[in-house]
């Protein structure tokens, strides 16, 4: 396929148990032990307290990583279009809804119903940041991160504007669990700009190939395990490359029989 | 610490919630050809059935005979969906939503148009971008109602590919034998409008030469009881913009379009513009002044290079809730002259949620291609707040420029602008 997508990474966010932000992620790759005081749930302190109470963990995860990435980019969140990618959105709410519908459908909780939309995270985020720009919520099963990255990069390049990408998946509950590939919560976020601004931290060149090249797993053993336990775990390969201060290249699935070839260049 | 990418110590200081932002209007975009499209809903299968129903103002809503427990409401159900089957080679995708998608793809020689495009461009140069709000969750619901003795989903629905939202697009891509980019959009009721914008951008970035866009949503308990829990479901057939409107009727539909660069299909109707925005207001209530909706409409006009007075017809979101219709009507009255006619077609089809963008894009395209101003079925006495630009009765009328509005939960808005080929020259 044609059409290289050239972008600059301006901000990075990450949250998973034990690795609650980018600095902890880098420390882990440097061989330091996991943070003992790491929070058990994503803080999502950007959300006002009432919203934070109402928000399911999937939303807190997406908002937490998006907040980290935007803070690193020093951009105003209200100016950023956003793409939220997740294979399953909130599988815990899906379990609640299906269980309730099977037994007492008239008892459906209205809050949990409106939280069940795939764009719940996009909704909470744009409300909390006062952002009127376009927000999207996409999925592509096990290629949800790659497909979300493709969409965010396409948006940034064709509209010539910085874009926030937040990718996340959380474990489910109940009978649905065996239909899901996510067993550990993990989310990450990137602020991507088509231009090299003062906060450009790494260069990305994306090229889409219509072929199934083997997904490159992360080289770190912990990240490799995590990548297998989360539908958006492909992102860890790219995050690992972004933590490496030299040029590199990785492959990430963008769909069935579709590969995103990504060249990274992180200034040392 | 290695690498130079380090997070600042104070993490949140740069984000200031609620700050007003200046809006930069988008540049005009090269129009795309809508070289084929199709719709299937409670009005029937294919465009002719929709045109006929719109001309006769014959609605497709009927009293609810779907939900697993009685819910006193009306629905827009697609006839014959229970008896429909997938080809044996696609059996692993079997579920109500994919059955409706397959039924929709069979109409209006749509698959022929896709296959022609695939032989012209190559199957990897055609994207499949579809919207849905609940996808195949009806199968998950069904599984939970019939768990086996071990508490597992029963064998007939124990297939991961039907328990995720992407099932729809992955199924369609397989059924259409395409191999280009494939995403599912799920931004509630704007889902299958936003895919038109995504396809435009992928073409601009030269990732693809054509795209199958659209969406499918099917009736399921999740939305019937979910919207009921919010008090948004009417007990009558929905009556958009009527003084006595009191909620939505839920429907199901499949709509698809094939988009190509304009020069490849010079006579085809054009997608001239799109606009997308966020309300930043509330998860399930529209912004009181329609701020996000206005931005989406203004951006669609700006990309199309159109002025409001050039718009002949607007297919409104018009859900028939008190709030949506009031806000949307006030916005239309503020932005457009009374030569612009507008209607909601949800009185015919019900609110088809994630499929509404695609279904109503097809209705806007029908207005252009078959010279038709669709009347607003269900509105006998227009709410005075909604009067002025509302087209109550269907009329034969030359329509050159048409918009379609789709607004979703989470304050997610999209507007599409379509023009006849000769207007785009």
TrEMBL record, chain A:
Transmembrane segments: none annotated. Residues 32-213 form the Beta-ketoacyl synthase-like N-terminal domain. Pfam families: Ketoacyl-synt_2. It comes from the Bacteria. Residues 34-53 are annotated as: Disordered. One of its GO terms (molecular function) is acyltransferase activity. This is Beta-ketoacyl synthase chain length factor. It comes from Oleiagrimonas citrea.
């Amino acid at each position: 396929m044609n059409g290289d997508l050239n972008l600059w990474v301006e901000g990075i966010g990450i949250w998973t148990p034990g690795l609650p932000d980018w600095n902890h992620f880098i420390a882990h790759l440097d061989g330091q032990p996991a943070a003992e005081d790491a929070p058990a749930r994503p803080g999502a302190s950007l959300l006002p307290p009432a919203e934070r109470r109402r928000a399911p963990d999937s939303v807190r995860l997406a908002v937490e990583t998006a907040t980290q990435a935007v803070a690193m980019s020093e951009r105003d969140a209200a100016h950023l279009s956003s793409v939220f990618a997740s294979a399953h959105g909130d599988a815990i709410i899906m379990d609640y809804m299906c269980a309730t519908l099977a037994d007492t459908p008239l008892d459906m909780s209205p809050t949990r119903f409106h939280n069940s939309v795939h764009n719940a995270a996009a909704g909470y985020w744009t409300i909390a940041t006062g952002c009127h720009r376009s927000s999207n919520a996409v999925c592509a099963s096990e290629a949800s991160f790659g497909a979300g990255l493709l969409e965010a990069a396409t948006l940034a390049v064709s509209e010539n504007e910085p874009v926030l990408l937040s990718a996340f998946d959380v474990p489910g509950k109940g009978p649905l669990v065996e239909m899901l590939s996510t067993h550990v919560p993990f989310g990450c976020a990137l602020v991507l700009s088509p231009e090299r601004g003062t906060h450009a931290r790494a260069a990305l060149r994306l090229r889409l190939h219509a072929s199934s090249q083997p997904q490159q797993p992360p080289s770190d053993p912990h990240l490799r395990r995590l990548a297998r336990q989360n539908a958006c775990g492909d992102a860890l390969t790219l995050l690992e490359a972004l933590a490496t201060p030299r040029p590199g290249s990785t492959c990430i699935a963008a769909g069935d029989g579709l590969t995103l070839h990504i060249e990274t260049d992180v200034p040392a | 610490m290695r690498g130079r990418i380090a997070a600042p110590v104070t993490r949140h200081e740069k984000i200031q919630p609620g700050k007003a932002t200046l809006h930069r209007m988008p540049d005009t975009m090269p129009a795309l050809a809508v070289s084929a499209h199709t719709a299937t809903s409670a009005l029937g299968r294919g465009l002719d059935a929709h045109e006929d129903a719109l001309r006769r103002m014959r609605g497709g809503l009927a009293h609810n005979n779907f939900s697993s427990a009685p819910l006193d409401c009306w629905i827009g159900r697609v006839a014959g969906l229970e008896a429909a089957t997938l080809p044996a080679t696609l059996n692993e995708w079997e579920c109500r939503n994919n059955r409706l998608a397959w039924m929709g793809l069979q109409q209006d020689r749509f698959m022929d148009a896709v296959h022609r495009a695939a032989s012209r461009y190559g199957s990897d140069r055609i994207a499949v971008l579809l919207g849905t709000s609940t996808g195949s969750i009806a199968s998950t619901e069904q599984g939970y109602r019939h768990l086996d003795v071990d508490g597992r989903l029963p064998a007939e629905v124990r297939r991961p590919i039907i328990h995720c939202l992407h099932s729809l697009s992955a199924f369609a891509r397989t059924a259409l034998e395409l191999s280009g980019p494939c995403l599912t959009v799920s931004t509630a009721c704007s889902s299958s409008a936003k895919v038109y914008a995504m396809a435009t951008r992928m073409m601009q970035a030269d990732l693809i030469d054509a795209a199958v866009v659209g969406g499918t949503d099917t009736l399921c308990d999740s939305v019937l009881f979910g919207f009921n829990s919010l008090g948004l479901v009417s007990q009558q057939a929905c009556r958009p913009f009527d003084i006595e409107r009191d909620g939505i009727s839920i429907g199901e539909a499949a709509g698809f379009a094939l988009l190509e660069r304009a020069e490849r299909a010079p006579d085809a109707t054009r997608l001239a513009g799109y606009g997308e925005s966020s309300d930043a207001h509330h998860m399930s209530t529209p912004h009181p002044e329609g701020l996000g909706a206005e931005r989406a409409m203004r951006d669609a006009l700006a990309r199309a290079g159109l002025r409001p007075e050039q718009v002949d017809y607007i297919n409104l979101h018009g859900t028939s809730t008190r709030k949506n219709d009031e806000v949307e009507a006030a916005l239309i009255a503020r932005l457009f002259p009374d030569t612009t006619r507008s209607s909601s077609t949800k009185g015919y089809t019900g609110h088809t949620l994630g499929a509404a963008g695609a279904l109503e894009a097809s209705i806007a395209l029908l207005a252009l291609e078959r010279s038709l101003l669709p009347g607003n079925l269900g509105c006998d006495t227009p709410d005075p707040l909604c009067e002025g630009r509302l087209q109550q009765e269907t009329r034969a009328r030359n329509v050159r420029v048409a918009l379609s509005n789709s607004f979703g939960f989470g304050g997610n808005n999209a507007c599409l602008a379509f023009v006849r080929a000769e207007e785009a020259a």
